[in-house]
Amino acid sequence: MPRLLSMLAPIAAAASAVFSTGTVASAADVVAPKILVVTMFGEEAKPWIEARKLETKIKVPGLSKEYPDVACDAEGLCVMTTAMGFANAASSVSAVLYSGLFDFKQTYVLIVGIAGVDPNDATLGSALWARYAIDGGLRHDIDPRQIPADWPNGMVALGAKHPGEKPKWGSGTEVYKLDEALLQKAFALTKTVELADGDKAKAYRATYPAGPGSSAPIVAICDTVSIDTYWHGSKIAEGMQEWASLVTDGKANYCTTQMEDNASLTALRRGADAGLVDFNRIALLRTASNFDREAPGQTAVESLSAESGGFLPSTANAYRVGSTFANAVITDWPTWSKGVPRK
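Predicted structure:
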């Protein structure tokens, strides 16, 4: 019988059949994780799978065919993988939330994966906790060849007439603010974690000017931009920074860019509205695998296709930092189950 049963109320021996077939579980079969780790593709999930004894595999209808189950250990940690992009992220998170196989009412959700990074804020391998997640794609876009001469870029808010003007309408999913108490606690618990680095990453970041981009990796707090399009280059990066500031009234400073988070958060927000999960128990961690723009003397195309050496440190540090937070929650669950500790 799976070791996970030790964290659950006693269940019937037939539960293993429910988990393997993916059919709807009865109330006695429902798994109540302390931590749900949400990764986006296999290499992000790999360190968790290799380091933890995730012996219980729960097949969930509606998950990606490539990542069809949620893997859990006996301590109360479960790991799922959405597959990349907005459509996969929203669909997979929703499938798990509404599967009837889990009780997430007290669960802390850790969204953790790799990202591009602004060299003005951090460098390759850095681990960056987000306060704001901003959708970078819900806007108008003018082809660069047709941008008016007096415009800084072609990014225009929905319903607006020129860059810098506030949106006139929207979807309601453009900005999510994560719980401040949880953010600060996660940062406090992980800010001294020893981060992995590599010679290739060190050599590549040396091509950037002195400052965060050329320094050693850090754990820090900054914001993230989500968009399906894998954009790249200093010009569009400047536009994204202006966009993040515009839609948050100047409160956000984006430093990472990725392809899923606003989609995952939208699914979680709706789950919270349905009483299935506590939105104040969601933490968002991205680690830097590449720079989002070119170095001096380099073209954006050269930068986009460069091998920066940041991938291995970023996947390693996503686990090092994320697991430090997860272990703290699990170890002191009697306290965390009631809410974020204030000390």
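Summary: Confidence is low (pLDDT under 50) at residues 1-27.
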